[in-house]
Amino acid sequence: MKDLRGTNAIVTGASRGIGVYIARALVEEGVNVSLAARSQDELETVANELRALGANVITTKCDVTSAADRERLLERTESELGPVDILVNNAGIETTSYFDSSPPDDIVDTIDVNLTSAVLLTRAVLPGMLARKRGHVVNVASGAGKVGVPYAVAYATSKHGLVGFTNSLRCEYHNQPVGFSVVCPGFVTETGMYARWEDEGVSAPKVVGRATPTKVAEVVLSCIKKNRGEVVVNTPPVRPIIVLFNIAPRVMPAVMKLLGYTRMFKRTADLASKS
After folding, report:
1. What domains are defined for the chain?
2. Low-confidence ranges of the chain (pLDDT < 70)
């Protein structure tokens, strides 16, 4: 999908964080955007900013774990904008905790929001994309979808699931004119969970790098236009570490500790337990 002008996109989790940047990047390409999130007031704030750029934007208060809300989101988007050409599954819960004391409901909620909702929304839009021979789905995962992350087991599990989900779709529909991509940001500055950690005095080791929300949004656009399969967004590149973990998984715990990941995530889990 090289020319995005006039296409219609749904962006979930669009009221804050990376979702706002992705929506803005799509609007700047001439895309009509349907914003979805649980906070209507925050959605309208984002929508008004985008409308000031001359964009055609609608908002839907939507809990992506609710079948009724997902159906209402799709019906409203199709009735007011038209068929869905692009779906960006960005809604997510960012959690850290000690797994053995994590409330079971929190584990279920994290996987439902981060993974199950993306699977079901994709299932809902895909038949229409296939029939029209046009479409692209972008799943926003995380660096935690590529390596094991201590003290974020449910979160990492859901993000690994998104990576596997995307790869499976690309294999099943590789001869079809519909694309699938997964974007795996590292620690995102300026917004989201990592920015909140920095406010608490917790910073990631310098060796593991950072990613800006602007860069993540640029990569999302690139994935849609070029049908890129999987992109890890991080500076410096961490792909060598990921490759090492894949070929020698036994070294992962020691390397995570050596790089400072384990201590950092433990600190965030301790902060979460006190909040």
Report:
1. 8-274 (3.40.50.720)
2. 190-200, 204-209, 236-237, 275
